[in-house]
Amino acid sequence: MVLQMAQSITPIREVEADNDQILVDRVRLGDRHAFDLLVLKHQSRLLTLVTRFIPNRSDALDVLQDTFVKAYRSLHAFRGESAFYSWLYRIAVNTAKNHIAIRRKESRDISVSDEASDVERFAVFQDTGSPDEEAGADELQMAILDAIERLPEDLQRALTLRELEGLSYHEIALAMNCPIGTVRSRIFRARDQVVQEINERFPGTFL
Q1: What is the tens place of the pLDDT at every residue in 98-117?
Q2: Alpha carbon 37 to chain centroid distance?
Q3: pTM score above 0.70
Q4: Whole-angstrom Cα distance, residue 133 to residue 104?
Q5: Which tens digit of pLDDT belongs to each residue from 33-86?
Q6: Is 115 in a helix, a strand, or coil?
Q7: Burial of 107 by CB count in 10 Å (0-12 exposed, 13-18 middle, 19+ buried)?
Q8: What are phi and psi of 167, to 5 degrees?
Q9: What are the chain's domains?
Q10: Pick the residue with more confidence: 107 or 207?
Q11: φ, ψ for residue 129 (rounded to 5)?
Q12: DSSP element (H, E) containing 121
């Protein structure tokens, strides 16, 4: 529930990571309540992330629930090589991408005669109401997610903290334990790489 902004090497950050690992270990031993605590700890932050891609709150909550269900079933695969939230983040992004793909398929199956499409529209696109155009918007959104996932880890984290979680440059500097100038540089490089990749696949999208 509380956004973590401590420096990555501080005792506080290490204690938080240790606490997550302790809870994970307890879940593996059959303690369901321990997983409830992990959900309570991370659900608010993950919902903010998911809502960036799926504006409809009801759908976003469904994706969030699916994320935790998948996490619970795959908990044996978590090896502690990264922060538990980072592991959850990847599951949430993949779940959101699957949701978008399903919506895109549904939009293609909708009759254009008298039926109104209920496919979600993202804020960066105009509400045209055309199923084909909405499907294209979903495809672009998935391409952006893919481009972000292919960034080097330091660039990906800086960009997601800024664009997806809305942290300030100062907060990101604390979270990544680096100067603000480094944060700005990483975000600039990350945006530039994403824009270049998207413009290659969808010419003229970012001018």
Answers
A1: 888 887 776 665 444 343 33
A2: 21
A3: no
A4: 10
A5: 999 999 999 998 898 888 888 888 889 999 999 999 999 999 988 888 778 888
A6: coil
A7: buried
A8: -75, 150
A9: 1-148 (1.10.1740.10), 150-200 (1.10.10.10)
A10: 107
A11: 85, -5
A12: none
CB 125 within 8 A of CB 175: no
* Look-up of token digits 């990350």: 190
Residue holding tokens 């994970």?
A: 24
Runs of H (alpha helix) within the chain: 11-28, 32-53, 57-73, 84-109, 131-149, 153-159, 169-176, 180-201
Give the angle subtended at the CA of 87 by the CAs of 156 and 46, to the nearest 5°: 80
187-193: long-range contacts (C-beta < 8 A, 24 or more apart)? 187/155, 187/158, 187/159, 187/162, 189/155, 190/148, 190/151, 190/155, 190/156, 190/158, 190/159, 191/159, 193/147, 193/151, 193/155
Sign of CA dihedral 55, 58, 59, 60: positive
Q: What confidence score (pLDDT) does residue 15 get?
A: 44
Whether the CB-CB separation of 157 and 146 falls below 8 Å is answered with no
Contact criterion met (CB below 8 Å) for 160 and 52:
no
The reported pLDDT for the residue numbered 111 is 41
> Averaged over 92-98, what is the pLDDT?
89
The predicted-structure confidence for 152-176, as pLDDT tens digits, reads as follows 989 988 988 888 777 888 888 888 8
